[in-house]
Amino acid sequence: MTNHDAPVAGHDEGQKDAASRRSGAADPRHPSPSDLTRHEKAALTSGADVWHTKALPRVGVESIMMTDGPHGLRKQAVGGDHLGLGDSEPATCFPPAVALGASFHASLVRRVGEAIGAEAVEEDVAIVLGPGINIKRSPLCGRNFEYLSEDPLVSGVLGAAMVDGIQSNGVGASLKHFAANNQETDRMRVSAEIAPRPLREIYLRGFERVVKTASPWTVMCSYNRINGVYASEDRWLLTDVLRGEWGFDGVVVSDWGAVNDRVTGLVAGLDLEMPGGSGHTDAQIERAVDAGEFDESSLDAAVARMLDLVRRAANRPAPTGALDVDEHHRLAREVAGRCIVLLKNDDDVLPLARDARIAVIGAFAEHPRYQGAGSSQINPTRLDSALEEMRALAEAEVTYAPGFVRDSERGAAAAASREKDADALRDEAVGRAADADVAVVFLGLPEATESEGFDREHIDLPADQLRLLDAVRAANPRTVVVLSHGGVVALPFADDVPAIVDGSLLGQAGGGATADVLFGLVNPSGKLTETVPQRIEDTAAFGNFPGEDGHVVYGEGILVGYRWFDARQIEPTFPFGHGLSYTTFSYGDAQATVRNGDVVIRVPVTNAGARDGREIVQVYASLANSRVARAPRELAGFESVEIPAGATREVEIVVRRDDLAVWDVRLDRWRVEGGQYDFHVAASSRDIRSTVSLQIDVDPGRVPLSRESSLGEVLADPFAAQLVRQTIQAFADQMPGIANVLDDEVMMSLMSSFPIGRLVGYGGMPITTEKIDELIAVANAGPDALGGDRS
Description:
alpha/beta; Rossmann fold; 5 domains; 30% helix
């Protein structure tokens, strides 16, 4: 192939071409890598600018646009940046993942994805950069507001629903950040040191589920290294696992600026470097191919995937101009109401009576904190405040006092507020609270404390807010706390106030949704997708976060989140899966059956109260006497069920057999361990309502023996144990004392960990290396090789 400089266009020309094709003005051509020059091929694997791929007019390849969008579109019409610094086009700001996860409802999340995909169509965006499904390893991660859960099942199920929703519109999603991107400190180069089991069972499992069930068009590789290798250069991760094991057939795109070595990345399986524009790394690829440093087939494979992506994008619908912005705002309000978690409600302080005298305290009520900062920051189409929405619903006076000044406030009004000292602000709030039937205090984290790009230093609310709350509840014991935050916060007042509403970050309609829940128009049903600790020292990653000298050790292994709290018997403030309602639910006895290999759990759930409500029924699995270390219980299934007042619903939850598997490091694959499993039907990880047991068969397959296999491992295999006994009996005449050694508990406790290859000559035993190797070979061949059956 000749290597001439064919024209490569910027995005403007490519976008015009794309619009004409979607309008039917021309039929798209379908070039293959062989139709492109080497220069064109290299160019196609990097961006034209911050948001666009390159166009190749000579062969009819158009430029396509991608933009940030985990919870709404951040399309920048002019220029571009990936840090949320510049303005963007108005778009619906739906609840971020920190709230969305609390719905535990896949179909609801899918509706949000559908709406974001519809807005992408209207903005002529081909790829939405989301969802993010990284695990919340530590509450200190500054980007936790973009992630769904500390549990991979929740992240996988809801992440797949989001991808399905976005892609149902004919636009693509980008699953991110792949993988083990669990902190912002030194994020561009830190190496996450993770053992195989936690890597597979915790940090890759959600990604595997989304890839296999939802087929995202693209997967975004992360900045960090994994066990010393940059994610953008990790062939094991991007090719062996993602493509080979999981069957991913889309494009792997880099996070913006994540490419360390373009050529190494391309060979490893990275298809598209973003952003682009300079072309200097394109030239590196051309020179490397010319010099024979790697086979051009690697480049052709990436180009073929890019061409397929462009073809997919060319088939997306044309903008119609018919987007109903008000309808999307209504959806945002509905969804936000389903994401609010009622943590506590003693003495039925909530819902508020419409005719009650209410004092609203706290600046967040007037100026909501509704999203995180950084690349996901949306310019909302409108913005509700809880104060205005509460006044719209109340029949009596709703008074207000800011109580404190938010750090983000600017302008003359903020300057005037700051002239009041903290005592004056607090005194005003106390006066409002003392004159009211109930005080509703809005507390939260300032924007400056959590964002993409840096991690939090602690999990505490600002001291001035805690002092305000102490003063208000002293003036009015009927105090409700409403929380706004992206990362979990400590709640030292949990025992001292009667009601706590966790609003996390609720998007542009969160103010209205909060009012709906406070007044009972919406019965709260959200549940926590991360554990609320009493203190940061109680969390699993404490002491191993954020690492040092470019390395962070995942020393807690698989014991992340609630798994750690349960295994260490640490009492959280509120457990994973917790969330109350304005009604009560009772559970009957659960039953378990096997259907097509999966476990089907059925349990009757009754709404015992006077209000219609929704319950999130959870199933946790456990296996006593497991061969490997496990958490006491692991989430294995969940279902969000609407139940009318007084009614009973039989809830069915399917636990996939695959979700019972652990990563067997000896076989380097997933394997279900056989035994009697307990399935705990629960209202939270600490609120078990019914338990049912079921015998589960082991997955076929056996671990091959070697000279390094311990005597205990050999004896655990029935056929190998039989061979060992026969061998020992053959030596009984030479060493009479050896005959009963396998039945000697004391001796076996000493010898069970002894590698069998080291038994040669040990203690005068008349066994040879050849005999050991013969035993291993026969054992590995199995009883079938001898015409027998393995028992």
